Amino acid sequence: MGSQPERAEASKVDLSDIGYTPMAQVSEPWSHDKVLETIPDDELGEISGSRSPLAFFHLLERLKTTKREGWRRFGINRGESIADHMYRMSIISMFAPPSLAPRLDMGKCVKMCLVHDMAELLVGDITPCDGVAKPEKSRRETETMDFLTGKLVSAVPGGAATAAELRAIWQEYEDSETIDSQYVHDVDKMELLLQMVEYEKRGRGTLDLGEFANVRRKMMLPEIIAWADEVLQERGRFWGAVEHVRGEHGIDGGVAAERSEQQEAYYQRD
Questions:
Q1: 86, 117 contact by CB (below 8 A)
Q2: Exposed, middle or buried: residue 225 (CB in 10 Å: 0-12, 13-18, 19+)?
Q3: pLDDT per position as a tens digit, 204-253
Q4: Locate the HD/PDEase domain: which residues (predicted)?
Q5: In 48, 136, 238, 250, which residue has its Cα 20 to 30 A from 175's Cα atom?
Q6: pLDDT over threshold 70, residue 106
């Protein structure tokens, strides 16, 4: 039960942000080791050489508590986590239209949805406002995936095969050359568009997130583009029904025209 002083000390702990993991601030050059040093040892356990997968499992929890930072710029501080985003993606991917489904490895697509942002558990959700160039972002994510699927689980019984599959699926998504990876990239953008509209509706006309609508331009597959157009039409009807629209871009672009060149390059990335 603990002594009275111990209980009194525990009562002083602030639990309000216990479910939120901020992006780790470390010195340059960024490395996964520096991020790991910011995590208390008792939260992870043995990092390398252990035959237990628990350290890996504990790290995965960070995907549940790391928020998607793009929304936080608009004051949505209790928005979706990275894991929230990947979960809905995995379900959306199972609804591949009949004209597309025969060309897909559905099992791999679902796994890809659940793996594609895994590196963000240490890297964090980097946005254009963070000033991190795309090659550097890619380097951090690659280093993190090499660590997660290498040293961290190398001694776990059966871990090597699972880690190799995770690493290969993540790389396929990054390369974006196969129909499966292109499909998941489109699903990624579709999930973002859905969330954009849902947050705007909850904002009751006070929240213009239209800058995110530009991801529609980078979608590749006609079947998923049709979904995107449907949700954007839904968005248009919502803004058309709002009496007092915040800003003049409520339907067709948010503040996209005001983005910097770096931000535009980020939103136009593959």
A1: yes
A2: middle
A3: 989 999 999 999 999 999 999 999 999 999 999 999 988 544 444 444 44
A4: 78-202
A5: 48
A6: yes
Q: Name the pTM for this structure.
A: 0.87
In a domain, 18, yes or no: no
Place of tokens 């939120």: 20
The count of domains in the chain is 1
As a whole number of Å, the CA-based R_g of the chain is: 20
> What's the CATH code of the domain at 65?
1.10.3210.10
Residue whose pair of structure tokens reads 């699903």 in the numeric block: 187
134, 266 contact by CB (below 8 A) = yes
Residue 16: pLDDT over 90: no
Joined together, the tokens standing for residue 165 give 């599959």
Spell out a b/e string for 173-186, using b for 16 or more CB atoms within 10 Å of the CB, else e: bbeeeeebbbbbbb
d(C-alpha 40, C-alpha 28), whole Å = 21
Nearest CA-CA partner of 193 in 64, 88, 91: 88
